[in-house]
Amino acid sequence: MRNALYSYGRLAARRPWQLLAAWLLVAAAIVGAWSVVGTTIDDDVRIPGSDSNRAQEVQAAVFPASALGNGTLVFHNADGSVTSTEDRTAIEASLRAVQELDEVTQVVSPFPQQPGQPAPRVSADGHTAYARVYFDVPSAALDEQAADRVLAAAAPATDAGLEVLPGGQLAKAAAGDPGHRSELIGLAVAAVVLLVALGAAAAMALPIISALVGLVLGLAAIGLLSQFGAIPDLATTVASMISLGVGIDYALFIVVRYRAARQEGDSHERALGVAVATAGAAVLFAGATVAVGLGGLLLAGLPLLTSLGWTAAVAVGLSVLAAVGVLPAVLGIVGSRLGAGALLWHRSNAPKAGWWRRIGEGTARRPWLAVVGSLMVLAVFIAPVAGLTLGQQDDGHDPAGTPTRQSYDLLESAFGAGVNGPLLVVADLGDAAGGDRAAMQQQALAVNSALASVPGVSSVQGPQVSDDGSAALWQVVPTTAPSDPATGDLVTELREEILPPLATDGTQLHVGGQTAAKIDFTDQVADRLPLVLAVVIALSFLLLVILFRSVVIPLTAALMNLLSVGAAYGILTFAFAEGHLTALLGLDGPVPIESYIPLILFAVLFGLSMDYEVFLVSSIAERWRAERDNRRAVVTGLGSAGRVVTAAALIMFSVFISFAGQDNPVIKMFGVGLGLAVLLDAVVVRGFLVPGIMVLLGRANWWFPRWLERIMPRVDLEAHPSAGETPAGLPPLDEASDGLPPAGEASDGFPPVDGPVLETR
Fold this sequence. Notes:
Elements: H1 2-14, H2 16-37, H3 51-62, H4 64-67, E1 70-76, H5 85-99, E2 104-108, E3 128-135, H6 144-153, H7 155-159, E4 163-168, H8 169-175, H9 181-198, H10 201-225, H11 233-263, H12 268-295, H13 303-334, H14 355-365, H15 367-382, E5 390-391, H16 403-415, E6 423-428, H17 437-452, E7 457-465, E8 471-478, H18 485-498, E9 508-512, H19 514-548, H20 552-577, E10 593-594, H21 596-627, H22 630-658, H23 665-697, H24 706-711
Helix pairs in contact: 1-12, 1-13, 2-10, 2-13, 5-6, 6-8, 9-10, 9-11, 9-22, 10-11, 10-13, 11-12, 11-13, 11-22, 12-13, 12-19, 12-21, 14-15, 14-22, 14-23, 15-20, 15-23, 19-20, 19-21, 20-21, 20-23, 21-22, 21-23, 22-23
């Protein structure tokens, strides 16, 4: 592989414009196709084999309208009653106008059709009412424009002085696309970090360009692949977050390696070949470790996690392609101008011995202090995990003032918390379909009576019987919120105690709806969690065994990664579940942690931690192979790689934490959890704990059984060909000067070699 990468780097130096044009043509084709078909989104939660999934299948088959997109229109009169003649006339005129919209299939009025009938969608005090609106497209296809048309059609009610709010899926559509503010903030902060780390505007720009190319290609590829299977909207956001972070980091490693080779005296062509063959190979390996972590999500057997896993893996893969494929072509063009726009202080004010080397020397002198101190710091972050409990979020956890939160609060105050997450009881009549109508009616009445008598049930609406008489549907409104554990207990009681005795004559009764689906989802995540953890850890261990030809280093790396994951869980618990940072993040109070968030955090963070392990320990391993002095190898390797790993972590932190500004609490959790955990991992774990343990273990770090030596393939990421030598017999290069000064001199703003130049060797 190194031979091919070395040749590609040389080709990029000789024919950069041709290579860049070829890449742009490929990118244009992919993005052009994406612009035509778009991205297929489906936010419904499905759990194969679960009771909620069976209810969803029956509902989609016999009640197709209710299975498509729907939402609520909430009408509120704080000073009067919506049942007054004036208000009711305005509301009914609004609903007729909504019904006439092309995308609307049905509108269910809050008012009874016949005098004396109950009005469950009108509050007891008469101040609030809500209507159900059904659309001819899935919920994911509802957009801001559709919500605006519905609200515009409700103008008669607004003109009459009523407050009109969208609710449910309609409110989510009204909130619109969050835009790309988070990405722009992350890029801006990352640019500052890069400028300080690299010392030149031109060098700073290249990782940003590479990351943006990878991001666009990744989103385009995800969009094209989504035509074969819809993905949740969350998947594109998580993929963007990870793609930007790793894209900048991977490009940074290659740019730094190229600069180091130039300042060691290599020609432009040779330096680019070496950079792609060494740092490029490390980037490929690092991308593979992240993909292994994300691939573990596929083992959960849940469509949501499968989508999050493969979309993020595709995004990482395209970021790797941009760094290893597109970036060398751009570097081939920029060449000696890489130092353009250099910071003056960056050219002269840094000492030769970096502070990470001094930290390494201190660690070598007092390794126990570094290990114990690091573990104490990590213990502070891990400690809150003892109080970690998983739960469900609902629209009541969204920031105040958002459309979803406004309608949620209004409906809760008028009808109780359960109205925001009704359960669906679906009866599949089976052999009883088309039978004795009187018997069917008797059974329906029995179901109604049984449901209404259950403690925790606020109201029961239905049954709605299908046209062919094969199924019936009830809407059950709990007394508690969708996120309340009591609602989960109610679902369990309905399934295990209330409904089984009523399932007679071949009738099957299922409990569905999004609230029930999330409960099933939590149960299946808990069942599959041990398998996912075991496979990801085992595969990551195997990859590091192959890379470092050691058993001890991969084992300690896995343990260190678990500590970083534990710290991430502790941060989430402290910040969100206990509510200590929710006010700072724009939330009102404690927010439960969804069951899938720890699993996704594990998959992503385990892979990213392996990235830093690869870049740090490969630098240490190179010194070990050259000198066979473990203590010296740790000091020199940390001094060399510590700066670039820290810069990479700061960039990753900047990108991740910027997503905490989004309204969605789940995205906030990913941004805060991943951002702080990555920074903690790079500084505390890789900067102090891993070097301290390696010093204590000494030569045992490199123990490798002979039988493994014989069967394991060999991977060398960091070997540097000496002058006049190339990998695997490639012809020597012409080392004639290409206009750059020799090592130690500066030209055109390029920092001299004795300045703070980041290295990977």
